[in-house]
Structure formats: C-alpha cells, structure tokens
Fold:
Amino acid sequence: MAWLNNKKVSALWANYEESNSWGWIDGAWRKFHDDHDDACTNFTILAAHAKAGNRDVNVRVDADRVKEMYVW
Amino acid sequence: MADDRVKSSPGATPHVPKELARQLVLAVDDSAARAPIRIGLHVEGGLADERYDFDFEAWGTGVASSALSCRMTGRSPQPKQGTLSAKELTELLRKVDVEALAEAARRTPRFPPDSLVGRLEVGNETQRVSVLFMADPEQARSAGYEPPRAVRELTAAIYDLAAKQLHEKTVAP
Structure:
C-alpha cells in the first residue's frame, strides 16, 4: 500500500468494459478500484475534477488499484 | 462469462513534459535516475553537393554514439560509439531544460527549401520532447527562425561531445 501525495492527474482513459477507468498519475496509468462500480465512477469523477482544475491529488494505491483519493 | 478481472488497459501515454523535467533534475545527482534518459540530435539537409548529416545519441547509462558526414567541408569520420565520463554526462544533463524545449517544440519553423533541419530529442521510457529547428545559424537568422537559447545551448554541448568522440575540431554545420 502506498500513498502518492501532491500529484497531478495528467490524463484519463476508459472504455466500454464495466468499471474500467484509469488515470495517469505520477508517471503511470493507475486503475481505479473496480470491485464496486460506484467506487470506480466516484474515482473517475474526482479525477476528472482534479484534471480540469489542475488540482493536486493524494491517492492510495493498493494491489495496483487506486483505492482512495483526495482532491485538494 | 468473461472474467471481469481481465480488462483492457490504456495503450497510449499522455505527453507530460513536467514528469520528464523532474526526472532530469533527479538524474543530475542520481545515477539510478539517469538510466532511462535518452538525448538525441539529428541534423540533415543542405544542397546535394553540400549535404550535411549528423547523428548523436546519448543514453543515461553513459553510452553515446556520433556520426558525421559533411560534403561541403569533406568531413566524414568513422562513426563512433563509446562511453561518456560521469562528468561529461552530468554536464550534458545540466544543459537540458525540458520545459523550454517543450515550449520550443510548439513552434516549428517554416523551413525554406534546402534548409538544414535539426531534431533535438530528450526522453525516457514514457515521455519524449522533440524539437525541430533550423540548424544552420545563418539560414535561421535570415529566415527569422533562430532557435531559442535552450536549443542552442544543448546543441552546442552535443556538438562538443561529438567532436571529441569523432576526433574532429568541430562537427557543427
């Protein structure tokens, strides 16, 4: 488990598959947690806001999934 | 039913010069951060009987290669590959201003025919900044497309390293 703090969301990607949404954060694509569709959607909304506003985020990455996110 | 754990992942990489800039800053002092960095300069063009071609590549591991062919001055040394000293590599890395290069990359000159065209590239595993510029100072001046300082300084540093590697007094056009 690792926190990536004060990072930017530089890009976003999603496709037709269920809960398949990713953000480019700190030099890599990070997949938003997809065990719960709501969570994946929420992360995508937060990340889109962060990207649009050029805001910093803190994200907790665990088992290659973004599982928690702050947008400052 | 398909396993929903096996999903597609993004295939493209976004252009984020700031990430490359951060790595360059780290690389000046940290040899581990240097490894994936690549700096390249390719220059070619000119009239047929004055044709100039120059290639330089340096990797963060220190490996560098140079090649030159200039019909106008008759310079055509054997291409060389070798290893830069830690000091040479550090000095080269210090010359790289990624954000200024990214800015320069947004303004490509309108190259007149027979121009010497330079392509300066700095990158790592995921990011790359590539600048096209007029490589002959006289042509650039008369066309009104003089390269910005960041391009001039990095290019000059590369020419110096290549001249040393190729045992030429100068390799510049």
